[in-house]
Amino acid sequence: MSSPEIASLSWGHMKVKGCSSTYKDCKVWPGGSRAWDWRETGTDHYPGVQPADLDEVLKKGIDLLVIGRGMSEALQVPSSTLDFVKQKGVDVKVFQTEKAVAEYNKLAGQGAKVGGVFHSTC
């Protein structure tokens, strides 16, 4: 299974190729995607992305995870979260969301087993 392309991104809206839903924040992995609902884990801009936010995507057999911190990079990514990803044997890249989507789409287009979590507002 290949990682689905992010078809469009604008403030508060993300579309994943092959999916009829529009997401505010989303998780993507080889063969799928879904909304990233921060309420599931109690995530907020600070302290930021938690291991629990990423666990689902990490279990999908990815080699690389791309994290989008938001259009203004308001979403924090603690070093402890990055360490958690690396301990799972997965490389991780963190960018402003537009750059994160571009990097994710490039890697997905090359056939990489890439996953991502993206925040589409601040």
TrEMBL record:
<comment type="similarity">
    <text>Belongs to the AAMDC family.</text>
</comment>
<dbReference type="Pfam" id="PF04430">
    <property type="entry name" value="DUF498"/>
</dbReference>
<dbReference type="GO" id="GO:0045600">
    <property type="term" value="P:positive regulation of fat cell differentiation"/>
</dbReference>
<dbReference type="GO" id="GO:0005737">
    <property type="term" value="C:cytoplasm"/>
</dbReference>
<keyword id="KW-0963">Cytoplasm</keyword>
<dbReference type="InterPro" id="IPR034096">
    <property type="entry name" value="AAMDC"/>
</dbReference>
<dbReference type="InterPro" id="IPR007523">
    <property type="entry name" value="NDUFAF3/AAMDC"/>
</dbReference>
<dbReference type="InterPro" id="IPR036748">
    <property type="entry name" value="MTH938-like_sf"/>
</dbReference>
<protein>
    <recommendedName>
        <fullName>Mth938 domain-containing protein</fullName>
    </recommendedName>
</protein>
